[in-house]
Amino acid sequence: MLFKLFETLQEMEIKLQNNQPRLVVVANKNICVVRQGKGLTAFENECPHMGEGLSGGLINFMNEIVCPLHSYKFNLHNGEEESRRCPTLKFIVVEFNSEGVFLDL
Fold this sequence. Notes:
Layout: E1 2-6, H1 9-15, E2 22-26, E3 29-36, E4 39-44, E5 58-59, E6 64-66, E7 73-75, E8 91-97, E9 100-104
Antiparallel strand pairs: 1-9, 2-3, 3-4, 4-8, 5-6, 6-7, 8-9
């Protein structure tokens, strides 16, 4: 099911800072979104290691989100933790079309 986050790509760029994780709640699910330029990555907000909210983390120079609790680092392209000590991130499909920016849950 598609849930609209933004009316346009321009609205997304205005409301989300580049490389700044942000929590959004959609259909009672906590989702972390990260804008990188004109792209958007979305995944479950809970760290696969201990459940900490990843939206409180940061994006490092290796394009990884760093968990604020134990500093586990997850690749934003494939979701893998750098040392493979825990499961990968659970990504959410982002869809861009003429009607807006959507998450597919």
